[in-house]
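User: Please run a holo structure prediction.
Assistant: Happy to. Please share the sequence and the ligand.
User: Here you go; the ligand is adenosine-5'-triphosphate.
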Amino acid sequence: MLKLGITGGIGSGKTTICKLFELLGVPVYYADEESKKILDEDKLVKEQVIKMFGSSILNDSGIIDRKELAAIVFNNKEQLEKLNAILHPAVGQHFENWLKKQNTAYILKEAAILFESGAYKQVDKVLTVVAPLELKIQRTMKRDGVSKEEVERRMQLQMTDEEKIKRADFVIINNEQELLIPQVFSLNQQLVNK
Ligand code: ATP
């Protein structure tokens, strides 16, 4: 079974495109969503994170406060690496278990920082979703109710589109001019007929 990673910058439309693939019957693993779930629910991961960052990152209900944790790690590369060293192997293992239950010609794995996190090594091919910068900013501001400055700050943590395109096997353009469905359909045909 072919493992296709799908990546792209904030607001590029990864999730939207994954939903289209799901309509065609392709299973999708949402790595970012799963890693949040693991942080909330996996006892061992939680224990290690508390040990590393202290119990002040817990909220009143005893759940890890992601905003608190993000404030620590997004301003400190070393701390981010420590968190990733706990989280990435757990997500990797969860993905492997999920994979065993799938039986289609190929599956998709969605991750915003597929290249940056090294998760591209766990997939066979990579699809990059690209969109014009201004459109990505507008979409994210509207979806998350955040300022332009906040979106730009988040974008700075990610690799540029040019770099992602260079490293991709397939590219989908989500600029609201090229039609999306034919692009998804054509790639699906290619992958199913392999
Ligand atoms: P992130 O990495 O920030 O989670 P993403 O790449 O998964 O973003 P989406 O959540 O799919 O991006 O899209 C961002 C927003 O833009 C969503 O509100 C989505 O509905 C909208 N959007 C995406 N593509 C299109 C499109 N072709 N036409 C109109 N709206 C779109």
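The pocket of adenosine-5'-triphosphate is lined by residues 8, 10-16, 112, 139-140, 143, 174, 176, 180 (CB under 6 Å).
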